[in-house]
Task: structure prediction
Amino acid sequence: MPKTKKKIDIEHITNLIYDIKDRELAKKQLETEIEQAKDEIKQTMTDFKLDELTADVFTVRYKPVISTRFDSAALKAKNRKLYDMFLKTSESMKFTIT
Result:
């Protein structure tokens, strides 16, 4: 029995891409609105010198966090050979729509 070749439904793929692009734009707009609201809360807390604020059932904290991290750029500049010894290659798939 001969195999039948599958055909790509370009119209369906195109509709999916448009849907993705529309949702990405909506997501970006929502993220902008969320960041603006967070910035307003942070500014209010800064103005009133608060690191914790209770509003209804929510507790908002805005305070410094100290952390340490490994400075790989400094190691690379200081001792390239040692830096190269610890490099690890990995492979992944990348999906883009342009």
Notes: Residues 10-47 form the longest helix (38 residues).
